[in-house]
Design goal:
Length: 105
Amino acid sequence: MAFEKGQSGNPLGRKKGSQNKYTKQTKEAFGMLLAGNLDNLSAWLEAVAAEDPKEALKIIMALSERFVPKLSQQALTDADGENLLKGIKFNFGPTIDEPNDDNEV
C-alpha cells in the first residue's frame, strides 16, 4: 500500500536527539581517530600551548564539544512562574570597600 501525497510513513517524525546513520558513523570514526592518537594529541597540544596557551584551550574545547553534550539552561521558577532565587541573598564576606580585621581601609 503506497502513501498518499503529503502523507508521511512516520507522522511523528524522528525522535528528538536521535542521529542519522552517517552522523553516528562519523562521530564513532572521529572518536576512534582520537583514541588511537591520544599520545600524539597530547604532544601536539603541548606544542601549540608552548606558543599560545589560549589557542590550545580553544582546541580542547572544540574537541570536547564533539563528545560532551551541551547543557541546557533551566529556569528556576515555582508553580506560578516566580523566580525561586529572588529572595535569596548570598554573603561571601566583606566587600573590598568594607573594613575588616585583616585589612583596614
